[in-house]
Specification:
By secondary structure, the protein is mostly helical. The chain has two helices and no strands. The chain starts with a helix and ends with a helix.
């Protein structure tokens, strides 16, 4: 009967120690979990800022590309106009007109 009492006492003490250890482990786990969640929220905020910055950079790049395309079309038109001007043949009377203007001056 005494052995059973000691065993029962030992079991109660073991259960108490195990319960206390489990409670402590759960508390530590909750603290670590809360800390990790806080870090994740912070990282999410940084990722959202990075996504916004990327979207803004992308929009600026698209705007610059459109402006460059407009500029390229303008340059091509100017080149075509210059080529057309270069192909114009000077009429024979033009030289006479230039000569007359020089004589007047």
């Amino acid at each position: 009967d005494g052995t059973l009492g000691r065993e029962a006492t030992w079991l109660r003490e073991a259960r108490s120690m195990i319960g206390a250890a489990l409670t402590e482990a759960q508390g530590q786990w909750r603290q670590e979990l809360a800390q990790m969640k806080g870090e994740q929220r912070q990282q999410l905020g940084l990722l959202e800022e990075l996504a916004d910055a990327s979207r803004q950079s992308s929009a600026r790049m698209e705007k610059a590309e459109r402006a460059l395309q407009v500029h390229e079309r303008s340059v091509r038109r100017s080149e075509e106009q210059l080529k057309a001007i270069g192909k114009i043949q000077v009429p024979p009377w033009y030289a006479q007109l230039e000569g007359a203007i020089v004589n007047v001056e």
